[in-house]
Structure formats: C-alpha cells, structure tokens
Design goal:
The protein folds into two domains: 61 residues, no CATH class; 154 residues, Zincin-like (2-Layer Sandwich). Helix content is 43%, strand content 20%. The chain contains seven helices and ten strands. The chain has a four-stranded mixed β-sheet with strand order 4-5-7-6. Strand 2 and strand 3 form a beta hairpin. Helix 2 packs across helix 7 and helix 4 packs across helix 5. The longest helix is centred in the middle third of the chain and has 31 residues.
Length: 236
Amino acid sequence: MSLRSYTLIRSPRARRLSLRINPEIGLEAVVPERLGEERARREVEAFIATRLAWVDRSLAEIARRRAALGTDGRMEVGGVIPYAGRAHTIVVAPSSHRGGIAIANGEILIPTVIARDPERVRMRLNSWLRRRARAVAEQMINVYAPEMRVEPQRIRIGDQSTRWGSASPDGTISLSWRLVLAPPSCFEAVIVHELAHLRSRGHGARFRAVVERHCPDELVRMRLLQRLAPALGAVR
C-alpha cells in the first residue's frame, strides 16, 4: 500500500500527532514542535498507514467537492474558474474588445496585451476578482446595513484561509475575495452574518434572531458554501 502524500506542520500547541484534511492543500499532519524531522515523519507515516481508509474517503470527498462547480481552478488562459457560482472559461478577448478584463456569456475575457504572459494574467485576474468582491460586498452592505441598523466603518478584502469573513469591534468587515466566486446567495449570507456581529458579538440566541430576521435560510446557504469551499479554494 503506497504512502499518501501529506504536508507536515509543526505546532508549538500540538500535544500529539493528528491528521486533518485541508480543503485547499489536502492531507496535513500536525506534530508537536519538539519532535525532530526524522522522527516526526516516521511517526506520521506509521500513523497514516493505520488511517488509510479514512484518508482515502476524505480526499475523495474533497475531489468530488472540487468538481462540484465543473472548474479546474487555473487562473490562466484556457482555465475554468467559478464566478458567481457558475463555471467560466478564461479566454483571450477578441481583437474588437477594448478595455480590461470582462465577463460575457460564461467566459472571462482577457485583454490580448497581457494574454501571452501567464504571470500577468494571474496577477491581473486576481486583482480584478478582488475589486469585484469589494464592489459586490459594498452593494450588499448598502442594502442590509440600514435594514439591520448597523454602521460598518470599513471593508477589508483579503484571502482568509480559515473563515469567509469576520467583524471587528471597530466596525471593520473583513471578507475573503473568494466569495465572489461563490453563488451570490452564499455571499449574501456571509454579509448578513458579519453585519449581525455588529449587533451581537457571539453566536447566541440574540445573534441568531438578528440573522434569521434578515436571512432566514442563512444556515442552508452557509452549508452550501462549505460544500463548495474546495472548488473555491482551488482557484490559483
């Protein structure tokens, strides 16, 4: 039986060896920081051998979820990435196209001037997606903030790997740019969730009441977002 590939993570907080599945990376093995490299890998590989069935089931589920949107995650000409919950093929814009990156009929159009440089395509597309995420977030916040009687002070667009969004006490709403890849209903659920935190810091009854008043099926939408997370996280 061949060894499954994994990423070794040394953690000062870990008390024992553990395995986990990262939707973006795959199998991760977390070990106490005190373990030497050779011993850590020996113990990890022996442990994985006892958990092969779980590892294979988990990785297969991640693969199925990545395929859920019919995308390959490649931010390059010919790649297929999700946008607003639908698969879009990245293509070179026709010669008649004027301007920057645009969307039309299930395609993301890349200006000819940058199409031959894969790194420029990736950087420009990443920047464009971040701007689109901010624009969509601003539109949704402008609708929901007055309804929910909250006043967010700032929107921060990042690439959080462990959460879709957060709300800080100073009124900053932080969001992952990858939300623009998800169905708009999921993006909307995250916006309502984070704005509700400006009314209630925890996830108790008061918080749930605020969320459900403005987005009754928020939990259903969030579960869908988590199912799609591997496909969204695969966009590179």
